[in-house]
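Bumping my old thread because nobody answered last time. Still need a sequence for this structure:
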């Protein structure tokens, strides 16, 4: 019995000291959800992401890239947006939730434009989105990706 107790204590100590810190120096970005996968025009697309950072200096810039999987649409709809992250005075070991809202062919910015072929013919487009960010120390997060999203053509 005397030998078992120190062994158990050593094993438990090993588990406690070997756990990985979930907060890293570089921000860690995680794609959480999107409100749908098929969007008719005049609807809202909402992306939800989570970020963690060890130093809490996540208040810099986040980038969003739309990549069309339809060859005829790619040059027109694909692009990169960047947004400053508001200074919300985070503490060390911060966890922040981000929500990005787009209107598909609506009247409010930022907007997602419909794919058109030729002068006026509109077509259904399938796109996915990539997200990444910098913190104040210019550490770059990993790049996360949305599932494929279908943007229906205009009727």
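Sorry it took so long. Here it is:
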């Amino acid at each position: 019995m005397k030998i078992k107790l120190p062994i158990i204590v050593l094993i438990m100590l090993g588990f406690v000291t070997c756990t990985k810190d979930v907060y890293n120096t570089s921000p860690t970005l995680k794609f959480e959800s999107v409100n749908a996968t098929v969007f008719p025009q005049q609807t809202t697309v909402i992306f939800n992401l989570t970020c963690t950072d060890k130093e809490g200096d996540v208040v810099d810039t986040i980038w969003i890239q739309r990549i069309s999987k339809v060859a005829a649409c790619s040059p027109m709809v694909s692009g990169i947006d960047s947004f400053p992250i508001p200074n919300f005075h985070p503490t060390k070991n911060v966890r922040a939730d981000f929500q990005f809202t787009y209107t598909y062919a609506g009247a409010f910015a930022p907007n997602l434009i419909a794919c058109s072929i030729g002068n006026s013919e509109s077509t259904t487009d399938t796109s996915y989105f990539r997200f990444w960010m910098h913190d104040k120390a210019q550490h770059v997060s990993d790049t996360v990706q949305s599932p494929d999203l279908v943007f229906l053509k205009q009727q």
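The two ends are 78 Å apart (CA to CA). Let me know if any region looks off to you.
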